[in-house]
TrEMBL record, chain A:
Any Pfam family: Epimerase
Protein name, entry field: Nucleoside-diphosphate-sugar epimerase
A GO molecular-function annotation: aldehyde dehydrogenase (NAD+) activity
Highest taxon in the source lineage: Bacteria
GO cellular-component term (any): cytoplasm
InterPro entries, alphabetized: Epimerase_deHydtase, NAD(P)-bd_dom_sf, NAD(P)-dependent_oxidoreduct
Segments for region (Disordered): 114-134
Domain NAD-dependent epimerase/dehydratase: 3-222
TrEMBL record, chain B:
GO annotation terms (biological process): fatty acid metabolic process
Protein name, UniProt field: Acyl-CoA synthetase (AMP-forming)/AMP-acid ligase II
GO molecular function, a single term: medium-chain fatty acid-CoA ligase activity
InterPro entries registered for this protein in UniProt: AB_hydrolase_1 (IPR000073), AB_hydrolase_fold (IPR029058), AMP-binding_CS (IPR020845), AMP-dep_synth/lig_dom (IPR000873), ANL_N_sf (IPR042099)
Superkingdom, taxonomy of origin: Bacteria
Transmembrane segments: none
Pfam entry (one): Abhydrolase_1
C-alpha cells in the first residue's frame, strides 16, 4: 500500500519509515529535512502548510502521523500550531484523499496526571489534566484523530512510552549529556518503575497498528517493551552503554518538583538555548511509577516486542563504541 | 416514657433498599393485651415472590440495643440478589434454587416501631415477637437470627416455636451470666445510679459508644443511619429500658426468663451458626464459650480483630448464605422425623468422638503406666535456671507425678473436655503436666512464646481456657493481660504473690488435694486432646485441635519412620516433639537454651545434652541449626566424640538447604540428616535425607525437594488457575503447580472456632484414596474397614515429580499472578541465592492482579546499610541467575521473618513495601 509517514526525519520517524519499507509498502515521507531513509520518496515541507500536506497525500492509502513539536519546555503557541493545527490539517487532507488507515502517534503523557501509574491501560486523553504544553497539545491532537475514526478511515492512536535506542538524540542524548555534566539527579533513589520502549519495537508496533487498523481502530494503545524497570536501572543501563558514569546522587522527589517548577518559570522569562535542567514534568516522570498493561495492545495488534531491554542496551553499547 | 406512632425510615439510608420497609399493626399480648402496636420491619418476601422463586423458609432477624433492623440490611439485599442471580441463571432449567425470605423487626420502643411508653422486660419482649409472627401468620420453616440482646429475644422465640424452628444463628450475644460474677464494666457504669437515664436516654452516649465498636470507623453516613430513629431523648426510651433489663443477679425480674431460655437452648438439636467479633467489651469470649457449651455442634467462627458490631466488620451475609447452602436440607424441613436416615447435629458430634477403632488405640500415657516401676531416667532438663543443675526424672517418678497431678486436677474440678492453657517452658514439669491433663481428658492449650505477647494473648483469649498452669512469668502475663482461667502455679508462691497474681493453687496444693481422689475414666481416641497454634506468619495464629487418636498416630508414625525404640533417646528443644519422649517410651532431654528463641542454642549445649542422656537422635529447628553450626568451633574433643554417637538428626519446623544440613553432618558425622516437611496441622508429611536432597538436585524441578510421604500419608496437588487460585481437582499428576493437599492419620481434627477456615481447608477434597493404601487395608482381613481419608489444604504450593517426590515452592498467598500465569516464588529465590553476593532472597510481586511483576529482595553477604535498589552489578548478576523476568532487584539490611522459626520470610509484607518503593515512595526499611 502507499503509505505516508510524517515527521520521518526524527529518531522514531526514521525507524518507522524504514520498517514500513521493509514491510513492502510504497513509502512517502513529509517533513522539512530529508529523512535519510533508504527506499522512500521524501516530500519536503511543513505539516502546517495545507498545500504541502495535500501534495504529499495524493493517492495515499495509509498515514502514519508522527510529526510533532517534542520538547519538555517552550513557547505554548508553537506547540499548538504544530501539534494541534498540524494534526487537524493532516486529518482533513487524509479524509479528502480517501485514506483508509490512519495511525496517530501519540504519547502516554496525554493521560498522565502526575500520580503513580502501575499496570494501567490507555486511559482517555485529557488535555485539561496534562502536565506540560507538549502533553496538552498531544492530548488534543489524539482526541481529534480518534474523533475522525469512521467506516471510511480507520484511526488508531499509538502511545509509545519513552522510546530509546542507538542514534537517539532526544532521550539517550540528553541523559548521557546531563550525566556527563553531573546534572542528572535521581529522585527518591530512582526506585520508581517505568516502562520504556526500544526503538525497533516502537517502529514494528506502529507499523503493526497500520496493518491491524481495520480491527483495532477507534482506540488508543500504550506501547512499551513490557519490561518495567526502576528509573535508576534504566538510566544506569543507558549511561554504562554509552561509557558514562551513571548518576549517583539522589534528591527527595518533592524538592525535585519544586525546583523543577521554579526553573521552568525562570526559563520562561529568560529562555536559553538548552532545555532547563529539570522541569516539573520531568521531575514527575523520574519520581513516580508509570508502567502499563500490555495485554490489550499485544492482542489487538497481534504483535510483541522482538528486542528485550538487555538486548537493546547491548546494541546501544555496540553503537556507541 | 413517651409514646409515639411507628414511622418509616428515610428513603436514602446507605445500603437499605426502601422496598423492604413495612409497618404493620400487631394485636398486643401481656401488658399490651387488648391493644394494637404498630411495628416497623424489613421484609424481602414480596420481592422474592415477584421473582417467582420457591421459598425455603424465613429468617427471623432481631437486632440488639441500641441498633435497629438496619443492622440486617445486607442480608436482605444479598438473599434477594442470590435469588435474582439464580432466577437469571436457571431460566432454562425447571426449578430455581429455593431462597430464604428475611424478616428483620424493629423491636417495640426501638428503631421506627411504636414508642409504647411501657416497661418491657425480657419475657414481654419474647411475647411481643410471638405476637408479631402470629400477626404475620408466619408459617413454614424459620431460622432465628439475633445480635446483642436481640440474640436472647430471638432465642426466646426459637425455644417457644420448636415446631417450625430449623436452625439458630447468633452474632455477639449471651444467654447466661454466672451468678456472683460481675457484669462487664461498661454496663455496670451505664447502669450506675443516676447514670442510666443520662447515658442511655437523655444523651446519645450509649448509642455513640456502640457505634464506635467496629475495627475500622463506620462510614459517617452509615453511623447517621443508625442514629436516624434515635434523634431525640423521647425516642431513646427503649435504649434505657434495655440496659435496665439486664439481669445482673437472680433477684432481677428478667432472671428467670433468661434462665428458662438458656436451659432450653442447651436442648436444641438443630444446625447452629455463631459469627463472633472478639473485640467486644460486653459480649466477650466468655459468653461465646458459654454458648458453645450449650450448642457444642454449632459452626463457630471467631473473626480475630472484629468488634461488637461484627456485621459491620465482616461480610457476614456471605457467610450466612454459605451456611444456609451447606445445611440446606435440614434447614428446610422442621422436625427430626423428616430425615430419619441422617443423624441430628448432636448425634453427629457424639458419633465423631466415639470412633470405632478404640480397640487399636494405644493412649499416649501407655508407656508411663507400663514403666511405672522403672527407675531408669525418663526426662532430663539441662537448663540451669535459678542456680540449679540439670534435673533428671525417672520413669517411676514421672509416672507417679503424672498420676498425682491428674488426681489433683480432678479434685479441683477439671473435667474431660475442659481446656488447660500451659504457660510452662519445656522440661520435666511441662511433661508431667501435659500427661496429667491428657490422662484425665482435659484439653491442653499449647501456645508458645514464639507468638509474641500480642499473638499469645490472642491465642489464649481465643481458646478461652478454663484453667491456666504456668510459671511466674506466664502467670504475670495472664494477670496483666487479663487472660481467662483459674490460675495454677507450678511453684509454691508466697501468699501475697499468689494473691497478687490471682493464683488459686500451686501444683503442690493439687497433689495434696488429690491424695484421695480416684482418676476418672480414660478419654477415648475421639476425644479432644490438644490445641496447638500455627506460627501466625500468615495472619493471626490459628488454634489447631487434635484428638487423642491423632496424637497417638503422630507418635506411631514418628516411631516407625525414624525407628525410635526405648534405647534411642531424644534431644529436642522443639516443643511438639519434646513432649513425645515419654509417649515413645524413650528418654528425652531438653538442651540448655532460651526455648522462646531457638537461635540461642549452642553446639556445646547439644553435645552436653547428648552426653547426659546418651541420646542417638537430635531434633533442631532451622534457627537453632544456624547457631549450632556457627558455634561449632567451641566444641572440645570430648564434645565431638559424644556427638559421634548421634545416629539421626532432624531439622524440624521449615525446610533448610542442603548446605546447612551438610554442615550439621560435620558436627555429627555418623548421623543421617533428615529434613521432614510438615506444619502445625500435620507435623510430619514427608521426609527426605541429605542424600535424597543431593540426588534430587540438578534436575529440572524448581523448589525445595521435601521427599516422599511418610507412612500412610497421601499427597495431592490442586492445580492453580490463571488467577492463582487452587481450583484444580486434587491429583497426583507430576509437574503441575498447585496447592499441596495432604491426608494422614495424624492430621489435625479441626481449627478451633474457625468454621470458615475449616471449610476452606477441606474444600473440594473428596478425592480417591491411593490404590496402594486401600489394597493394604483389604489385605489385612481382620482389620476394620478404613475410615474415609481426611484431607487438608496446606496453603503451601508446589508440585510432585515423576518419582512421587514433593517439591515445595512457597505459600499460596505469595504466588505471583503475572499476565502469563501464576508463579511460585521459591524456585526463583533459590536461583537468586546461588549468586555469591546474596545471603538470602525473597521474590515478591508488585502491581495489579494478573499483571504482577516479580521483584527480588535480597540480603547481601556484606550487609547493605540502607534499603534501596541493588547496585547495577548485583542487579545484573541476580537477573542472570534466573529465567524469571525481574523488574527490579532491591537490597535490604535484613528480610522480615517470623519469630518462631526466624526462617519464614514475610513475603506479603515485603510485597507491600516493594510496591510502595517502586511506585516512587521514600526508601524505608521493609
Amino acid at each position: 500500500m502507499i503509505v505516508l509517514v510524517t515527521g520521518a526525519s526524527g529518531f522514531l520517524g526514521r525507524a518507522v519509515a524504514a520498517e514500513a519499507v521493509a514491510a513492502g509498502h510504497d513509502v512517502r515521507t513529509l517533513q522539512r529535512r530529508p529523512s535519510g531513509v533508504d527506499g522512500v520518496t521524501d516530500f519536503l515541507g511543513s505539516i502546517t502548510d495545507p498545500d504541502h500536506v495535500a501534495t504529499a497525500m495524493e493517492g495515499v492509502e495509509g498515514v502514519i502521523h508522527l510529526a510533532a513539536k517534542v520538547s519538555l519546555a517552550g513557547d505554548p503557541h508553537a506547540f499548538h500550531t504544530v501539534n494541534v493545527e498540524g494534526t487537524q490539517l493532516v486529518l482533513a487532507a487524509a479524509e479528502a484523499a480517501g485514506v483508509s488507515r490512519f495511525v496517530q502517534v501519540s504519547s502516554p503523557s496525554v493521560a498522565h496526571s502526575g500520580s503513580a501509574l502501575a499496570g494501567v491501560g490507555a486511559e482517555p486523553a485529557s488535555p485539561e489534566h496534562a502536565r506540560s504544553e507538549y502533553a496538552r497539545t498531544k492530548a488534543t491532537a489524539e482526541l481529534l484523530a480518534l474523533a475522525s475514526d469512521s467506516d471510511r478511515m480507520h484511526v488508531v492512536a499509538i502511545r509509545p512510552h519513552l522510546v530509546w535506542g542507538p542514534g537517539d538524540t532526544q532521550l539517550v542524548g540528553r541523559i548521557v549529556d546531563r550525566a556527563r555534566r553531573g546534572r542528572l539527579p535521581l529522585l527518591n533513589g530512582g526506585t520508581a518503575l517505568i516502562d520504556t520502549t526500544y526503538i525497533d519495537n516502537a517502529a514494528s508496533g506502529i507499523v503493526a497498528a497500520l496493518h491491524r487498523a481495520d480491527t483495532a481502530h477507534g482506540k488508543a494503545y500504550v506501547l512499551t517493551n513490557g519490561e518495567p524497570r526502576p528509573v535508576a536501572d534504566i538510566l544506569a543501563g543507558i549511561c554504562l552503554a554509552s561509557g558514562v558514569q551513571p548518576p549517583r546522587w539522589s534528591i527527595p522527589a518533592a524538592v525535585g518538583r519544586t525546583a523543577g517548577s521554579l526553573v521552568e518559570r525562570v526559563w520562561a522569562v529568560r529562555p536559553g538555548a538548552d532545555e532547563p535542567p529539570m522541569t516539573r514534568f520531568l521531575a514527575e516522570q523520574l519520581s513516580t511509577a508509570h508502567w502499563f498493561d500490555q495485554r490489550d495492545i499485544r492482542e489487538a495488534l497481534d504483535w510483541s516486542p522482538a528486542v528485550s531491554i538487555d538486548e537493546g542496551l547491548h546494541r546501544l553499547s555496540r553503537h556507541e563504541q | 416514657m413517651v409514646t409515639e406512632a411507628a414511622s418509616r425510615p428515610p428513603h436514602d439510608l446507605p445500603g437499605l433498599d426502601p422496598r423492604f420497609s413495612r409497618v404493620t399493626a400487631v394485636p398486643g399480648s401481656g401488658v399490651d393485651a387488648g391493644l394494637t402496636r404498630d411495628w416497623h420491619y424489613l421484609d424481602n418476601g414480596d420481592e422474592l415472590a415477584r421473582l417467582g422463586v420457591p421459598i425455603a423458609g424465613t429468617i427471623l432477624a432481631v437486632h440488639g440495643n441500641p441498633t435497629w433492623s438496619y443492622y440486617w440490611r445486607e442480608l436482605l439485599t444479598q438473599t434477594l440478589q442470590a435469588a435474582e442471580d439464580g432466577a437469571a441463571a436457571d431460566d432454562a432449567s425447571a426449578a430455581a434454587a429455593p431462597a430464604w425470605r428475611v424478616i428483620a423487626v424493629d423491636q417495640l420502643d426501638m428503631g421506627f416501631s411504636e414508642r409504647t411508653g411501657i416497661h418491657r422486660p425480657l419475657a414481654q419482649r419474647v411475647a411481643d415477637l410471638t405476637a408479631f409472627t402470629e400477626a404475620l401468620s408466619l408459617d413454614g420453616p424459620v431460622i432465628s437470627l439475633g445480635h446483642d440482646w436481640g440474640g436472647v429475644v430471638s432465642l426466646g422465640w426459637a425455644v417457644d416455636h420448636a415446631e417450625q424452628l430449623t436452625g439458630v444463628m447468633l452474632l455477639n450475644t449471651a444467654v447466661h451470666h454466672e451468678t456472683g460474677k460481675p457484669i462487664p464494666a461498661p454496663l455496670r457504669l451505664a447502669r450506675a445510679r443516676g447514670m442510666l437515664a443520662a447515658s442511655t436516654v437523655r444523651t446519645p452516649a450509649f448509642l455513640e459508644t456502640t457505634l464506635a465498636l467496629t475495627s475500622e470507623p463506620l462510614d459517617p453516613a452509615v453511623k447517621d443511619a443508625y442514629r436516624a430513629p434515635y434523634r431525640t431523648a423521647a425516642r431513646r426510651g427503649g435504649i434505657g429500658g434495655f440496659v435496665a433489663d439486664i439481669p445482673v443477679d437472680s433477684s432481677h425480674e428478667s432472671f428467670s426468663e433468661l434462665d428458662r431460655i438458656a436451659t432450653a437452648v442447651a436442648q436444641l438439636d438443630l444446625p447452629a451458626l455463631m459469627l463472633w467479633g472478639p473485640r467486644d467489651p460486653i459480649f466477650s469470649d466468655y459468653y461465646l464459650d458459654d454458648l458453645i457449651e450449650r450448642l457444642p455442634h454449632a459452626n463457630v467462627h471467631r473473626f480475630e480483630g472484629a468488634g461488637h458490631l461484627v456485621a459491620e466488620d465482616v461480610p457476614y451475609a456471605d457467610f450466612v448464605l454459605t451456611w444456609l447452602g451447606d445445611n440446606a436440607a435440614s434447614l428446610a424441613s422442621p422436625g427430626s422425623d423428616s430425615a430419619p436416615a441422617s443423624p441430628s447435629p448432636r448425634e453427629a458430634i457424639a458419633a465423631a468422638s466415639a470412633t470405632s477403632d478404640d480397640s487399636s488405640f494405644v493412649p499416649l500415657w501407655h508407656n508411663l503406666d507400663k514403666r511405672a516401676d522403672d527407675t531408669a531416667t525418663a526426662v532430663i532438663d539441662m537448663s540451669t535456671r535459678g542456680n540449679r543443675g540439670p534435673q533428671q526424672v525417672s520413669w517411676r517418678q514421672l509416672s507417679d507425678r503424672v498420676n498425682r497431678i491428674a488426681a489433683g486436677l480432678t479434685a479441683i474440678g477439671v473435667r474431660k473436655g475442659q481446656r488447660v492453657s500451659l504457660l510452662v517452658p519445656p522440661g520435666p514439669t511441662l511433661t508431667a503436666v501435659v500427661y496429667a491433663c491428657l490422662r484425665i481428658g482435659a484439653v491442653i492449650v499449647v501456645a508458645d512464646a514464639g507468638l509474641g505477647v500480642k499473638g499469645l494473648t490472642r491465642a489464649v483469649r481465643g481458646s478461652w481456657p478454663d484453667f491456666v498452669i504456668g510459671e511466674a512469668p506466664g502467670l504475670i502475663a495472664a494477670r496483666t493481660l487479663g487472660w481467662p482461667g483459674v490460675r495454677i502455679s507450678t511453684a509454691q508462691l508466697p501468699k501475697v504473690s499468689a494473691a497478687t497474681l490471682g493464683v488459686s493453687y500451686s501444683l503442690r496444693d493439687l497433689i495434696t488435694l488429690g491424695a484421695n481422689t480416684p482418676l476418672p475414666a480414660e478419654p477415648r481416641s475421639g476425644d479432644d486432646a490438644a490445641i496447638l497454634f500455627t506460627s501466625g506468619s500468615t495472619g493471626p495464629a490459628k488454634g489447631v485441635v487434635y484428638r487423642h487418636g491423632q496424637l497417638s498416630a503422630l507418635r506411631d508414625v514418628l516411631a516407625s519412620h525414624f525407628e525410635v525404640t526405648s534405647d534411642t533417646g531424644l534431644v529436642t528443644g522443639f516443643a511438639p516433639f519434646a513432649l513425645l519422649g515419654p509417649a515413645l517410651g524413650t528418654r528425652s532431654v531438653t538442651p540448655e537454651m532460651d526455648v522462646s528463641a531457638p537461635r540461642t542454642l549452642t553446639a556445646r549445649a547439644v553435645a552436653a545434652a547428648v552426653e547426659a542422656s546418651g541420646a542417638s537422635m537430635v531434633f533442631l529447628s532451622p534457627a537453632a541449626i544456624l547457631n549450632v553450626v556457627a558455634t561449632a568451633g567451641d566444641l572440645t574433643s570430648n564434645d565431638r566424640s559424644e556427638l559421634e554417637r548421634v545416629r539421626s538428626f532432624l531439622s524440624t519446623g521449615a525446610p533448610i538447604g542442603s548446605e546447612l544440613l551438610a554442615s550439621v553432618g560435620t558436627i555429627m558425622p555418623n548421623a543421617t540428616a533428615h529434613s521432614p516437611y510438615g506444619m502445625t496441622e500435620c507435623l510430619l508429611v514427608t521426609d527426605i535425607t541429605l542424600d535424597g536432597i543431593r540426588a534430587a538436585a540438578g534436575g529440572a524441578n524448581t523448589g525445595v525437594c521435601v521427599g516422599k510421604p511418610i507412612g500412610e500419608n497421601q499427597l495431592r496437588i490442586s492445580a492453580l488457575d490463571e488467577h492463582g487460585a487452587a481450583t484444580g481437582s486434587p491429583s497426583t499428576e507430576p509437574g503441575v503447580l498447585g496447592e499441596i493437599v495432604v491426608s494422614a492419620p495424624h492430621l489435625k481434627d479441626h481449627y478451633d472456632r474457625l468454621w470458615l477456615t475449616d471449610r476452606e481447608a477441606a474444600r473440594e477434597t473428596t478425592v480417591e484414596t491411593d490404590a496402594v493404601g486401600s489394597a493394604a487395608a483389604s489385605d489385612a482381613t481382620d482389620a476394620p474397614a478404613a475410615p474415609a481419608a481426611r484431607w487438608h489444604r496446606t496453603g503451601d504450593v508446589g508440585h510432585l515429580d515423576e518419582l512421587g517426590r514433593l517439591w515445595v515452592e512457597g505459600r499460596l498467598p505469595h504466588v505471583i499472578v503475572t499476565s502469563t500465569g501464576p508463579i511460585a516464588p521459591v524456585g526463583a529465590e533459590q536461583d537468586v541465592e546461588s549468586v555469591a553476593a546474596v545471603r538470602r532472597a525473597a521474590v515478591v510481586g508488585v502491581g495489579p492482579h494478573q499483571l504482577r511483576q516479580a521483584v527480588a529482595v535480597v540480603e547481601t553477604v556484606s550487609p547493605t546499610r540502607r534499603p534501596g535498589l541493588a547496585s547495577p552489578e548485583l542487579t545484573a548478576a541476580v537477573r542472570e541467575s534466573t529465567t524469571l523476568p525481574l523488574v527490579a532487584v532491591l537490597a535490604v539490611p535484613e528480610l522480615p521473618t517470623d519469630i518462631r522459626h526466624n526462617s519464614k520470610i514475610d513475603r506479603s509484607r515485603l510485597s507491600v513495601w516493594a510496591e510502595r518503593l517502586l511506585a516512587g515512595g521514600k526508601p524505608t526499611a521493609p
